[in-house]
Every structure is written in structure tokens, then in C-alpha cells.
Design goal:
Structural class: alpha+beta
CATH class of the largest domain: Alpha Beta
Shape: globular
CATH architecture of the largest domain: 3-Layer(aba) Sandwich
Radius of gyration: 21 Å
Number of helices: 11
Strand content: 25-35%
Number of domains: 2
Helix content: 25-40%
Amino acid sequence: MPISIQPFEDRHREAVAAFNRRLAAAGSTWQFPESPVPGWLAPVEGSATLQEFFVVADERAVRGGYVLQHRGAALRGEEVPLANWYLPISEGLVDPRFATVAPSMLRDVMRRHPESFCLGMNGMDSRLARLAARFGFEPRVLPFFVRIENGGRFAREARYVRKRAVVAWLLDVMAATRFAGFAARFARIALSRAPRLDGIELESVEEFGPWADELWKRVRARYSFVETRDAATLNRVYPPGRARVERLRLVRDGATLGWAVLQSARMSGNPNFGNLHVGRITDCFAAPEDAGAVIRAASDVLARARVDVMISNQSHPAWCAALLANAFFRAPSNFVFAPSPELGKKIRAIDPEGRALHLNRGDGDGPWGYDPRSF
């Protein structure tokens, strides 16, 4: 049956709700937003940073949907419009009759925005990553880093490392004998090569101001690819008043050295982190040579919040090195960046090895802790 892809409107509400019910009845946990008005990055006058929802429908029902986030980027300092697509959900997940819906959505993305990308994708081996690769997208993994603060609780609760029975048993023994706590403290001391913060002032701010604009203009050309991080964009992505979001500004000699966005949450039955108190360096920006100071300050703030574990995804070698110098260690990652063929071509022209991209969780589908269905 022929399908059409169109913006989500009020007239689609019931059809989208019915689509979600069919997915749930078939055992899928994926759900598409049931309101056409996003709760996060809704269109507002004067802002080019926004979300759009699209639905795939045939004559009988909605069969899928996806989200486009519009946010600019800088390619070696030159600002360009860009689109990030995510939450592509197809009825083909539960019914093979609709296997063509997902490819149709990807074709629609490429038609609307030839220069686009996807971030996340649940790993290189996921169906979405494989589909994107068939369409010429260029998936690459963004490194993932972990720093253990409470070794005993981590050993008992970190479900993503406890999947094998023998490993879980060994971790329980380490926790019971307090060896896990000792090992975590020793690792932090042994691995730490963090710079001192002498002469640097730290400020916890409620919103991003002109100082963020100045830093953005001064530093953006140091990266081959970086999504727009001026004050107006950042205040849309991390709106003032959002719970569990801390904005940390570093100042040296009256000038902004860099900033970080920190988040923390006490998990409850999380499939990866159990009941751990998890802290995340969600976003950060500075000149590459100042990455170490920013990560040091961010780590100190999260440590004072008494999180059990800290995590961060970063792409740029300077930011990866800064995490390692601050006693993080690299762990397996399922966070994938996949630029479209057109965007990939532009990136390769200025950065053939892709070593100067600045990407992290702040470039994805929203601040951690907010269900995309509520955006």
C-alpha cells in the first residue's frame, strides 16, 4: 500500500496513539511522541534551533515516524545549517509487511536535508547503523569513558559488567571484601595526571550569556566539525530551570576559559547502572589545550556530589586525553556518529582522518533524563 511522509499534525494524534499501542502489544518498548508540539525545542519565533516530527502513513494507519532536530554547525569556523535525525520508529520492527518503512524514512531525511547526521544508534551492529551505512552514511564510534568513585556500589550495581555469572560472582566477592573500593581509589590516584586549577575561577550559572558567544566565536575554528554552541542555542538545548542540569563556567583573568554541562541521577533498576548514582559530563566546550582544566573542574564538581560513577562520550583526541588524565578509563561504546554522504564529504575535505571533530552527548537527542516522547 502506498505510503506518504508528512509533518505530524493534530489530525494524526489518534493514529499515532494507535501505532504505539500496536507496537506495545507486539512487545516493543519503542514509542513515538503522541503530540505534534514538542515539549523540548518546540518552534519559536526567531530561533533556528527546533524539532520537527514526521509520520509515515498509508491509507489505513500511521506506520512510523522520525524526528528532525535543526541546529547549525561550524566547519572549521564556517557556520552552516544542519539537521540531526533520530527516533526513527517503524512498524517493521514488529511486522515484516512494513519492512520498507525504515528505508523510506531515511530517503526522506536525505531528500529534505542532504547534509544531516544521526548520533547514538545503539552501536555499529544495530539495524539502524547498518541501514544508514547502506545509504552511504559513515558510522563511527565515539569513545566512552568511565570513572569509578564508589567501587563497592559499582561492583554490586553495574549491570552492564555483571552479565556473566562468573563476573558477577567475582564482583560480589570484591565488594564484600572491600577490595573493589580500594581498587577504585587506587586507580583514581594512579591514573590521575590532571592539571591544577590555580588561577581559574569556577561559576555555576543558570544560563549561558554573552561570554558563551565570545568563546564560541574565538574557538569554533579550532575544530573541523562542531555543532553550534552560542548562547542562544545552548539556552534552547539546556533551558534554564531544567532539573538535574548544572552549567559550569571556568574563568581565567576575566575571560571565559570553557564550560561544561553536568547531569546526575540516582538510577532505579536501570538496565546498565542498576541503582547507581550516575554523574555525566554531558557537554563541554573550550580550546583543545584547555580541555584538561574543564574536565578536571567537571570531575571535581561531580565527585563533591558523591556520585558512584562518572561517564562521558567525547570524540576529539584532546578531550579524550583529558578524561584519561582525570582518572577515567575507556570502556566499550555503543554511541555512533553517522554523517550523511554530503556532510561526510565536507568533513573529509577539511579533516581527512576525522580527528578534529568535537562531539559528545550534547549533540544528541536531548538532555539525559528526559524521555524523547515528552520532547
